[in-house]
From TrEMBL:
UniProt feature, compositional bias: Basic residues: 42-51
Classification via InterPro entries: Probable_transposase_24 (IPR004252)
Region (Disordered): 1-54, 294-316
Residue ranges, compositional bias (Polar residues): 11-37
Species for this entry: Solanum tuberosum
Protein name: Transposase, Ptta/En/Spm, plant
Length: 316
């Protein structure tokens, strides 16, 4: 370990303790410590989150931050809680989880060990299934984001041979080479190209920045006299339109106008559609994801209900 480095200890469910070393100044680097000009070229950025802000808040409060995740929200509705939880799970994904090629390759033990670390940082009720599922979902997303950053590092190298020589402090050489094997596979490159084209057809920007949609929607509800969150059509306009800049994109404006037309058509006659059905009809549906509400809220599915029922039967 480099001088001034830090060792983190992770206690697993089996009682084992795993140590992970992290350089004290690595947060100020966008390139590996041993990378040279011939290895890779990267822009100097903001640096990696290390959770210092959370520690300061803990000392100021004299206790751990309380994290509350309401049922069916998938994220904390308070912006500060949402940001700190996401940051901490990002640190866990980066420093304390072996990085497999796919999330489904992670074992239950690995996920539980990560949640133990999360519970050490926050006052959070992981006994509630929707709280635990929400934390796992955030961890999954942050793990994917970390892998994406590593892929950009791989692609920025002058050649595959040079890329494999990059030393990533958070990864073992075996895990880094495993990822390099996946990224250099022609079949993987082909699938990525197809997915990139498909995402470019569907993706359009919004005005929420990095704030979680769940927290933003709750804040909008707090500003109303009734204390009611805006429906999905109103929320869609709030996130994709501003008085100063107008619509975020032509696609966003078209989607909103189609929602309004469909709402007028199906609320004036005998046939009717709910707001959720109207938005789903315009934006489409995605498995495990409600479009227009960001990551967090999940649609009701028979598979999820059956899985939860089976878990409850086992616990009983």
């Amino acid at each position: 370990m480099a001088p001034g480095g830090r060792v983190y200890k992770q206690k697993t469910l089996t009682g084992q303790t795993v140590s992970s070393a992290q350089s004290a100044d690595e947060s100020n680097k966008c390139t590996p410590a041993t990378a040279t000009d011939d290895t890779a070229r990267f822009k100097r950025g903001r640096g990696k989150t290390r959770g210092k802000g959370l520690e300061k808040m803990k000392r100021a409060l004299g206790k751990k931050m309380v994290i509350e995740i309401p049922a069916r929200k998938g994220r904390p509705v308070k912006a500060v809680q949402s940001a700190k939880l996401s940051n901490e799970l990002g640190i866990i994904a980066r420093n304390f989880l072996a990085l497999p090629n796919k999330w489904k390759e992670r074992t239950v033990e690995e996920k539980d060990a990560a949640l133990i670390r999360c519970h050490e940082k926050f006052e959070i009720n992981l006994d509630e299934h929707y709280v635990k599922d929400s934390c796992e979902d955030i961890l999954k997303n942050r793990s994917r984001q970390w892998r994406y950053k590593l892929k950009k590092m791989f692609e920025s190298a002058l050649s595959e041979e040079v890329a494999r020589k990059i030393e990533v402090p958070e990864l073992t050489p075996e895990n880094w080479n495993r990822l390099c094997d996946m990224w250099s596979n022609p079949e993987h490159k082909k699938r990525c190209q197809v997915n990139k084209v498909n995402r470019s057809k569907l993706k359009y920007s919004h005005f929420m920045g990095s704030k979680a949609f769940v927290a933003a929607r709750a804040e909008m509800g707090d500003t109303t006299s009734e204390g009611v969150e805006p429906n999905r059509i109103e929320f869609y306009k709030n996130t994709h339109y501003s008085n100063e800049k107008g619509w975020a994109s032509e696609e966003a404006e078209t989607n909103y106008n189609n929602m309004i037309d469909l709402k007028a058509l199906y609320t004036s006659g005998e046939s009717s559609m709910t707001i959720d059905e109207i938005v789903d009809a315009i934006l489409g549906k995605k498995s495990g994801y409600i479009k227009g509400l960001g990551y967090g809220p999940k649609p009701n599915t028979n598979r999820a209900t059956q899985r939860r029922t089976a878990e409850l039967e086992d616990s009983l």
